[in-house]
Amino acid sequence: MGLRNPGRVNIVITNRVLRYCFHKDESLESLVSHGEIELPVDTIKDGRIGNKPVLLKLLRNLVHEQKWKRKKLYFCVPDDTVVIRKIKVPSALSFNEVKGYVTTHLGNRFHLPFRNPAMDIELLKAGKEEQTILMFAYPKEKLDEFVSVFTEAGMKAVVADLTSLSVYRYYYLQEENKDNDNDNDVLLIHWNVDSLVLTTFSNHQAVFTRSRKLVLESGITNELITEITRIIDFYQFNITNGASTITRLLISGDAANLQEIKTKIQNSVTIPIDLIDELHKTYDIAAKYTDVLGLAMKHNV
Q1: Which PANTHER family match (predicted)?
Q2: Rounded CA gap, 258 and 192, in Å?
Q3: Residue 183's pLDDT band (cuts 50, 70, 90)
Q4: What CA–CA distance (Å, rounded) separates 234 from 238?
Q5: SS in 3 state form for 216-284?
Q6: Cα(118)–Cα(243) distance, integer angstroms
Q7: What kind and span of H or E run contains 63?
Q8: Are 199 and 208 within 8 A, CB to CB?
């Protein structure tokens, strides 16, 4: 007799809203429910929990209404303080030893803008003397705060992801984009109502990210467009030392004027631009849900 699949909760939290979906498995076709809840002001502030009682009550209500008690949870927290960095470590180190080596050399050989990071490591390239790895670092204290409140609400938080990685996963794993391997260097422009996150991808791996807070209803300023073109140049001349250039832009987010944003950017660059709204074809669900849908596509652990 087969075991019952308990399904999985997926939650993306921003400073303004909580988006969720529940899937029977990691396929889009297994979607059971989805929704968005506007958070009371300052429930989440600058990427941190600002009012735990309010957030906990909201989550407990969701768990009760959706019958999520003891369900596995994958979640994304705001990308505003994540650091993505390409670094070199000795080739003699095994994969399991790399994290300890990086931790030991923090503040000396490797520098982060915060202490006590939660880290994830990916191997990029192995050489005879050195291997190149990709380090994802996030303030552990901030991450632990979210894990704690999810646990108190009755869910089992097992995986934390980045919103930018989830959006790109959704984009790349769509069938019509899988064969588009000529575009190895992509800039994801994730434009929300109150934040802008720019993340570059090379061969489907994130290699750099930068975020900035936006004033509500600030509009599409020339400064923001200039920031995007600056990142395109920075990627070519600083990150890849002239070896590569951005070949495609991907625009996503929950801002209401993404089409206008696309038009403004097109007036400043000659790079092809994809708008997630134009690619998103999933079950009549609004395109703003691509972040949490991409999270749902992450493999089970």
Answers
A1: CELL DIVISION PROTEIN FTSA-RELATED, ETHANOLAMINE UTILIZATION PROTEIN EUTJ
A2: 9
A3: low
A4: 5
A5: CCCCCCHHHHHHHHHHHHHHHHHHCCCCCCCCEEEEECCCCCHHHHHHHHHCCCCCCEEEHHHHCCCCC
A6: 31
A7: helix 52-66
A8: yes
Tell me the pTM.
0.93
Q: Taking 50 as the threshold, does the pLDDT of residue 1 lie above it?
A: no
Chain centre to alpha carbon of residue 209: 10
Amino acid letter, residue 276: I
* pLDDT value at 6 more than 90: no
Residue type, 210: R
Q: Is 292 in contact with 166 (CB distance < 8 Å)?
A: yes
Q: Which domains does the chain have, with CATH numbers?
A: 83-139 (3.30.1490), 181-281 (3.30.420.40)
> Any idea of the CA torsion for 9, 15, 17, 19, to the nearest 10 degrees?
-20
**Which range among 19-23, 127-131, 154-158, 214-218 shows the weakest confidence by mean pLDDT?**
214-218
Task: Please give the backbone phi and psi of residue 110, each rounded to the nearest 5 degrees, phi first.
Answer: -115, 135
What average pLDDT does this structure show over 96-121? 93
Read off the pLDDT of each residue in 278-282 and give the average, rounded to a whole number. 71
Closest CA to 251 of 297, 208, 199: 199
Q: What's the residue count for the chain?
A: 301
pLDDT beyond 80 at 132? yes
Mean predicted lDDT score pLDDT of the chain: 91
Integer Cα distance of 19 and 34 in angstroms: 8
Q: For residue 225, how many other CB atoms are within 10 A of its CB?
A: 16
